[in-house]
């Protein structure tokens, strides 16, 4: 049986030296050997030019390969935008988990920043005017760490609840519209004040429903 | 080795804040709901048992009070940890201009130190070292898991008849 890939020792020893015994010299510089150019294929590239880096210039590859623009995160398959009907606003989203993470993150950071700024001012105001810097710093830090997390936590809780209910309604009705948003806002507001009694629940639900409606109108109008 | 399963860097901080906060709130709701339920007294009276067997005495109100007061705090702690970690991670990526397992370890070190800063230098140092070691363990376990998972698809030398390798 003849082994097609040149396995046995006899084959390699008889075939490998064959190019060396021919008259064609294996040199890179071909200028002096133009006389016997008929023996060598004229268009064959020499070894150094073939392996040089410009052979792999991506701009010379097929344009449809798109290798010259690098890897773009938005081209990846996982980053397909949500195809839920009616959910196309001016904010791109890949689904309810995106809404949840970015919504609660924005609200939490915004609440933290607002509450922190209020606490900063409060701490400066509460400390005596002639207090040393260390006391002032401590007063400011105390006020910031009291006000900031409280407002941030409340805002983040509201955003989580709103986005969870909104995602549930979207999944249940298989499309998105302003009614889903407003309903999620009303339920969120009612839940937020659910231990305070009927009247605060109604006020809070109405406020959150209005806010959700305004937000829904803004995202779809822009 | 860039990680393309996450969003690009400045915006991913918002995502991490929100994701960590949500995880903390949901986990804190479960945790403190059970804890508040168990810590509250159950005064079993006959009409209550007859009305609803699974809500006993002060247990329902105790669970709700614990969730209301504690779950947002747990969420805030998780969220601030995750967000500060993400901020440090992005900053270290920007400075080093490469992505390897040392980024999260350094970011964890900085996060632990920054969040414990008000406890004094010693507290901050210990917390930073603890967080760095924790992140190093996470990264090591992650690398071990990925290499274990990719072992099944490792290229293998085909078993040739007679033991002759290809292109000898």
UniProtKB/TrEMBL annotation, chain A:
Comp. bias regions, Low complexity: 31-45
Presence of keyword Phosphoprotein: no
UniProt-recorded Gene Ontology molecular function terms: protein transmembrane transporter activity
One term under GO cellular component: TIM23 mitochondrial import inner membrane translocase complex
Organism this protein belongs to: Lipomyces tetrasporus
Species lineage: Eukaryota, Fungi, Dikarya, Ascomycota, Saccharomycotina
Keywords, ordered alphabetically: Membrane, Transmembrane, Transmembrane helix
Gene Ontology biological-process annotations: protein import into mitochondrial matrix
Keyword Lipid metabolism: no
Name of the protein in its database record: Tim17/Tim22/Tim23/Pmp24 family-domain-containing protein
Region (Disordered) residue spans: 1-46
Membrane topology: Multi-pass membrane protein
Cellular compartment(s): Membrane
TrEMBL record, chain B:
Any one biological process term the GO annotation gives: protein import into mitochondrial matrix
Keywords from the UniProt entry: Membrane, Mitochondrion, Mitochondrion inner membrane, Protein transport, Translocation, Transmembrane, Transmembrane helix, Transport
Membrane topology: Multi-pass membrane protein
Subcellular localization, as worded in the UniProt entry: Mitochondrion inner membrane
Pfam families per the UniProt record, alphabetical: Tim17
A GO MF term: protein transmembrane transporter activity
Keyword Nucleotide-binding belongs to the record: no
Gene Ontology cellular component annotations, sorted alphabetically: TIM23 mitochondrial import inner membrane translocase complex
Predominant subcellular localization, coarse grouping: mitochondrion
UniProt family annotation: Belongs to the Tim17/Tim22/Tim23 family.
Protein's name according to its UniProt entry: Mitochondrial inner membrane translocase subunit Tim17/Tim22/Tim23/peroxisomal protein PMP24
């Amino acid at each position: 049986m003849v082994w097609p890939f040149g396995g046995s020792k006899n084959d390699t020893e008889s075939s490998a030296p064959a190019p060396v015994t021919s008259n064609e010299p294996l040199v890179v510089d071909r200028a002096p050997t133009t006389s016997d150019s008929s023996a060598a294929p004229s268009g064959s590239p020499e070894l150094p030019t073939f392996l040089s880096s410009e052979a792999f210039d991506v701009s010379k590859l097929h344009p449809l390969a798109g290798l010259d623009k690098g890897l773009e995160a938005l081209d990846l398959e996982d980053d397909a935008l949500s195809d839920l009907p009616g959910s196309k606003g001016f904010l791109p989203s890949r689904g309810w988990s995106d809404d949840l993470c970015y919504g609660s993150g924005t609200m939490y950071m915004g609440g933290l920043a607002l509450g922190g700024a209020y606490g900063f001012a409060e701490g400066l105001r509460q400390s005596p005017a002639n207090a040393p810097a260390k006391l002032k710093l401590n007063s400011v830090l105390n006020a910031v760490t009291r006000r900031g997390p409280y407002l941030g936590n409340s805002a983040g809780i509201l955003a989580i609840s709103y986005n969870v209910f909104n995602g549930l309604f979207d999944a249940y009705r298989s499309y998105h519209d302003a009614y889903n948003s407003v309903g999620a806002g009303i339920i969120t507001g009612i839940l937020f004040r659910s231990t305070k009694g009927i009247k605060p629940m109604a006020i809070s639900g109405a406020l959150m429903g209005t806010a959700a409606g305004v937000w829904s109108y803004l995202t779809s109008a822009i | 080795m860039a990680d393309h399963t996450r969003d690009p860097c400045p915006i991913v901080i918002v995502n991490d804040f929100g994701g960590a906060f949500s995880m903390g709130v949901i986990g804190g709701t479960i945790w403190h709901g059970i804890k508040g339920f168990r810590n509250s007294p159950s005064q079993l009276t006959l009409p209550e048992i007859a009305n609803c067997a699974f809500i006993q005495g002060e247990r329902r109100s105790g669970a709700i009070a614990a969730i209301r007061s504690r779950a947002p705090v747990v969420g805030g702690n998780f969220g601030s940890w995750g967000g500060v970690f993400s901020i440090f991670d992005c900053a270290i990526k920007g400075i080093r201009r490469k992505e390897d397992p040392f980024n999260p370890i350094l970011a964890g070190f900085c996060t632990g130190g920054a969040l414990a800063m008000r406890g004094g230098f010693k507290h901050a140092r210990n917390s930073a070292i603890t967080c760095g070691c924790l992140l190093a363990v996470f990264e090591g376990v992650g690398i071990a898991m990925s290499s274990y998972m990719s072992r099944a698809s490792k290229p293998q030398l085909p078993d040739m008849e007679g033991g002759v390798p290809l292109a000898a």
